[in-house]
């Protein structure tokens, strides 16, 4: 029936509606159509998944787009938010950094919201805590860039990034144990589970959920789609 639901999302509801009085007949029509046209299934499933993801994003909008203080880049009042869920131990996250930089440089109305999603190692969690502590000192980006530039995540690289960013180390050590920092990470983990994220990087742009490393053109397309959706009246 999942396939039937996907077909309905791709336009099959018209067929199903015609036979709504007879469920068995409807299922037969749907099955026969799918067997005759199997190429529609991937697109139908993508549309269904996008629809379900959009619902989940809408239901958790505030937890997704409202940034942790200081963990933001680009235009803070931008019309589209690109929310990046990252892990400092993630090579694909590191590979996506040029795309984020390029997007900010080329689009004065985009807002980047950084979300810590430490899922790969215990050191990932420590790095996330220190990144949020840096954000509270308005030094998120220097710490973020320094740690990714190190090419590794361990206690030594975290402390070196903190020093490079010019953190007040004593204040940061207090902050990483604070309810504000711990709560942010736990909320991100919960939201990621709700949205069905299976790894990092994961992204939310408008109502779209993206997975994996993204190129600059891919992010630009997602932003353009989000702007178009905002300007299109709901039906």
TrEMBL record:
<dbReference type="Pfam" id="PF01323">
    <property type="entry name" value="DSBA"/>
</dbReference>
<keyword id="KW-1015">Disulfide bond</keyword>
<protein>
    <submittedName>
        <fullName>Disulfide bond formation protein DsbA</fullName>
    </submittedName>
</protein>
<feature type="domain" description="Thioredoxin">
    <location>
        <begin position="57"/>
        <end position="228"/>
    </location>
</feature>
<dbReference type="Pfam" id="PF18312">
    <property type="entry name" value="ScsC_N"/>
</dbReference>
<keyword id="KW-0732">Signal</keyword>
<dbReference type="InterPro" id="IPR001853">
    <property type="entry name" value="DSBA-like_thioredoxin_dom"/>
</dbReference>
<dbReference type="InterPro" id="IPR013766">
    <property type="entry name" value="Thioredoxin_domain"/>
</dbReference>
<keyword id="KW-0676">Redox-active center</keyword>
<dbReference type="InterPro" id="IPR041205">
    <property type="entry name" value="ScsC_N"/>
</dbReference>
<dbReference type="InterPro" id="IPR036249">
    <property type="entry name" value="Thioredoxin-like_sf"/>
</dbReference>
<keyword id="KW-0560">Oxidoreductase</keyword>
């Amino acid at each position: 029936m999942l396939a039937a639901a996907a077909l309905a999302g791709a336009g099959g509801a018209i067929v199903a509606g015609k036979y709504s009085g007879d469920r068995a007949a409807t299922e037969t029509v749907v099955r026969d159509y799918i067997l005759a046209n199997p190429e529609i299934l991937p697109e139908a499933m993508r549309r269904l998944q996008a629809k379900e993801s959009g619902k989940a994003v809408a239901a958790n909008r505030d937890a997704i787009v409202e940034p942790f203080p200081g963990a933001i880049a680009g235009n803070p009042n931008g019309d589209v938010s690109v929310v990046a869920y990252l892990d400092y131990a993630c090579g694909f996250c590191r590979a996506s950094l040029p795309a984020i930089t390029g997007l900010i440089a080329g689009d004065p109305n985009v807002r980047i919201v950084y979300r810590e999603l430490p899922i790969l190692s215990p050191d990932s969690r420590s790095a996330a805590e220190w990144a949020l502590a840096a954000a509270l000192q308005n030094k998120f980006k220097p710490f973020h860039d320094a740690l990714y530039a190190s090419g590794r995540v361990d206690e030594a690289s975290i402390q070196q990034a903190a020093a490079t960013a010019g953190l007040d180390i004593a204040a940061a050590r207090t902050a990483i144990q604070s309810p504000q920092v711990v709560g942010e990470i736990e909320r991100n983990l919960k939201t990621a589970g709700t949205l069905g994220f299976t790894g990092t990087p994961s992204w939310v742009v408008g109502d779209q959920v993206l997975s994996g490393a993204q190129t600059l053109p891919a992010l630009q397309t997602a932003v353009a789609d989000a702007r178009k959706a905002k300007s299109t009246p709901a039906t």
